[in-house]
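Review form for a predicted model. The reviewer records the input and the model, then writes brief findings.
Reviewer: anonymous (R2)
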Amino acid sequence: MPSHTWFVVAAFNESQSIGAVVRGVCEAGAKVVVVDDHSADDTLDRAVEAGAVGVRHPVNLGQGAALQTGIDFALRQGAEVVVTFDADGQHRVEDARVLAQAVATGETDVACGSRFLGLDADNMPRGRALLLRAAALFTRWTTGVAVTDAHNGLRALSRMAASKIRLTQNRMAHASEFVAQVRLRKLRFKEYPVKVLYTAYSMAKGQRWTNSFNILIDLFVGAISR
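Model under review:
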């Protein structure tokens, strides 16, 4: 992993998975901050035990807000590369390393993972795939950025890019807002193939295809509010 890389993990009631996620990141040689978005379980304790720095929101604010809190924290610690990484175990550290390296070497300012560029997702529900493709098309239309997977939470940002992007949409709309700000700030952007691991746990935590309708709703809300 490139030096001075910080992983930012937004977590809400992820005590079952967060320990393994943090250990995987630490074993790869990166530092990690877990932003506990006011969980009702012991997510934060398990994250800290596994090697993370823990930050807790006093009230539940949503994933977008938790990511922004974590990004700000990582920048204050001197991060040169910031990686956003999901708490439920669906992202692979080896994919994050590729994205972080691309940013660290100056290949791009923002590297985003895409599950539609050659690495098939394991057990990806067909309905969810269709909705994610629709979300990507909508984001391309509203932002002008040629994304193939707008709602993939695995991203790497240079220090400069992380300092310029500010997420104000607290929930799912933050993903399309992120892409819009890439264009607004004139940042170099590139997608890389990654594999998303759909497990029984991640599906139960919000990856069910029926919940994907929320993505489209928040996309429209985000577009109206910009």
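Findings: The longest helix spans residues 126-143.
Further findings: The chain has one domain: 5-225.
Recommendation: see findings above.
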